[in-house]
């Protein structure tokens, strides 16, 4: 993964502004509306499944799919083992920091030392 | 808790574990944003304006694969949609606050300071919206400074990005595990994984992520509705054991 971005700083600036708007809308409007009225049931129930689906999709993409959108068959064993390890740590400790730090150390050992 | 402790110090003590945990993650995020071509000022700006670990990591990694701006913004929309849920669950504690307050509060709310505030509101009846806002601003300060330092480190040292990029994966695994409260959610997660591979390979675009997320979450929603109506005793609706029992507190409040 090397830096090959073709965007300029000005593009990045606008990207930040748009992302900030997109990030702000779901933070603000539900908070504003639901200080006054009740949350629709179906929305709440659907929302319970959105984050976990998205997080899994992102994890699967980074562990199993390469930059040409093909299934990785070599070079990702270290990541697979590290991902399982992070899952166990997250489940047992519920600590975000421990999960991230142990994941980083594990991937460092597997990728940089064992080259798998 | 000491009675005459000043408010700012008491709130700072509440936010300290979160603030410290932001340091390694913020550093990694700053390094990646730098690699994605952001200068220090833009990194500071995005940390304040977007203020979400997952989102910033995602922007950085999508920029390095040259994803088009519209795809990044669409992915951001789905990633940030979950805040609708967080916001609506906090709203009952913010009744009667002014519009500018709600605006400011929403602007700096994210997963982690939400968790701190939700727990405080649920367990401490003296916890005030103003203190909750201060929690957000302290965490914002820790996050932004860590990001800027990460960006500076990234410009000074050569770092293996494949390794730092795994911080994002680890963060998402953690967030997925924290969401896994029933067996049905495990099924939805597995379905999402399979659909992700299928649609990414098929569509050759990050939009595959969006399609997989929508299908998996809607499937989960309809399976749950069906089971609630026809098979309320189904094993799929069983709760997943939480070894630290943190979630027991949130559940009892609902």
UniProtKB/TrEMBL annotation, chain A:
- Superkingdom in the source lineage: Bacteria
Alphabetically sorted, this entry's keywords are:
Membrane, Transmembrane, Transmembrane helix
InterPro entries membership: Brnchd-chn_aa_trnsp_AzlD
Bilayer-crossing regions: 12-34, 71-91, 98-115
Pfam families annotated for this entry?
A: AzlD
What's the protein name? Answer: AzlD domain-containing protein
